[in-house]
Amino acid sequence: MLSPLPRLLIAAVLSACFFVVTPLGAEPSPSDPASLTAETTEEFHYRWRLGGFAGRLAGMFLPSKGDGVLTFENLPGGRLESDLLITSEEGDDGEFWRYGSLIDTDNEQALRAWSSYRWRGEEKERGNEVEEDGVLDVVSGIWMLRRDRPTEQLKLTIWSDGKLYPVLIEPEGTTNYTLGDRLLRARKYTIRGDRTTPGRPWKGRLELWFTDDEAAMPVEIRIARSLADLRLKMVQRP
Question: Please, which residues have CB within 8 angstroms of residue 233's CB and are 6 or more apart in sequence?
Fold first, then answer.
């Protein structure tokens, strides 16, 4: 069974993402996420690693780095499916972790979320309908930030594994960002628990960097929890 630490880290970090596999290193075309049409798919490739004291400790016994593929696929009827697939070359039995989400793009609403994994011969999957109105999961939150690009603090309710968490989205402006041998301008956002609003405190912290252009590509995703963090950094095409 997947041990609590890496499962918690990946779930906390990825309570949000997508899938579809193409050759590692493929770079997405810079399409505007607000104008995607049906049959349009965006696919982003990453290298991931565990960091922080607890992450380095876990890496002594468990996979601590590998590949990630994040996909957004537009579906008919104003819906979008996202999927995140994580694998590692350090595994020896086809281990993976996957998180998917179905989003109503017209109403900015998460409709369904699911996850699955294989670890040391054990496989498990589960899915949940999002019954509450007006909430996003982490992945649909990433999609919303790419489309709306807010410039002021936002308060939102995040759905995760059947529970609701009030969060704050903090725009942190633009900065230079290095991707491989390229220097880009990137817009950064931080999502953290809103302790000024009644409800369960969200204990994680999510940092996101998007290219500061129409594509708003998610070049880096970093999630921190306690003494560990999970970082996904986009792979540049060779």
Answer: 46, 47, 48, 179, 219, 220
Locate 171 and state its tokens: 């725009």
- List, in order, residues 6 or more apart from 207 with CB less than 8 Å away: 188, 189, 190, 191, 220, 221, 222, 223, 224
In this structure, what are the phi and psi dihedrals at residue 33, rounded to the nearest 5 degrees?
-60, -25
- Provide the 10 A C-beta neighbour count for residue 93: 9
Would you give the distance in Å from CA 201 to the centre of its chain? 20
**In degrees to the nearest 10, what's the CA dihedral of 15, 19, 23, 27?**
-70
Distance CA 217, CA 45 (A): 11
Evaluated on CA atoms 14, 19, 22, 27, the torsion sign reads: negative
* pLDDT computed for residue 213 by the predictor: 93
User: Tell me: the pLDDT tens digits for 115-142?
Assistant: 888 776 778 888 888 888 888 888 888 8
70 within 8 A of 84, measured Cβ to Cβ: yes
pTM exceeds 0.85: no
CB 187 within 8 A of CB 216: yes
pLDDT in tens, 5-42: 344 444 434 433 322 222 222 333 334 444 444 457 89
